[in-house]
Write a structure and sequence with these properties.
Elements: E1 7-13, H1 16-28, E2 33-36, H2 38-43, H3 48-51, E3 54-59, H4 63-71, H5 83-89, E4 106-110, H6 118-127, E5 134-138, E6 144-145
Antiparallel strand pairs: 1-3, 2-3, 4-5, 5-6
Protein name: DUF2007 domain-containing protein
Domain DUF2007: 16-71
Region (Disordered): 73-94
Length: 146
């Protein structure tokens, strides 16, 4: 007969990450526990079925509470509206808008299309390097504008 303070095997996991997540959930609930075979399975995953995987151990007195915690479905916390996403949708006077589609999904950087004038085209040929100016690029419609 086992004593209430003796250590018992609770559950086995074939992946060390899953075992560590279970251990973390139990420790967050105040139940002391430990893992065995973790290093062996981490270094040689093919030995996991032979050794029984990563084993989770708890005290006999905490076994039922630990099983309840591990098999309980986590409830999502109620949240309010995400203020940051509403602020991101608000028009920003600094952000330029695409003249073609009106999108604010615009970035400023090197032009992707040939925007050569006569002199920059000639310079590009002589240097064998494309000389392109910086322009705004709309990621919604692909328009480039100054």
């Amino acid at each position: 007969m086992s004593r209430p303070d003796s250590v018992v095997f609770l559950e086995s996991f074939y992946e060390p990450m899953a075992a560590n997540l279970a251990r973390t959930r139990l420790e967050a609930a105040g139940i002391p526990c430990f893992l065995s075979n973790e290093n062996l399975v981490s270094m040689m995953p093919l030995y996991s079925p032979i050794t029984g995987g990563v084993r989770l151990h708890v005290r006999q007195s905490d076994a039922q509470a630990a099983l309840d915690i591990l098999h309980a479905e986590p409830e999502p916390r109620p949240t309010g509206p995400d203020v940051a996403s509403f602020e991101a949708d608000a028009p920003d006077p600094v952000t330029p808008r695409c003249p073609r589609c009106g999108s604010s999904d615009v970035a400023y950087g090197p032009a992707t299309r040939n925007t050569y004038g006569f002199w920059s085209g000639l310079l590009s040929v002589l240097l064998r390097f494309p000389v392109r100016g910086n322009r705004f690029h709309c990621f919604h419609c692909g328009n480039e504008f100054a």
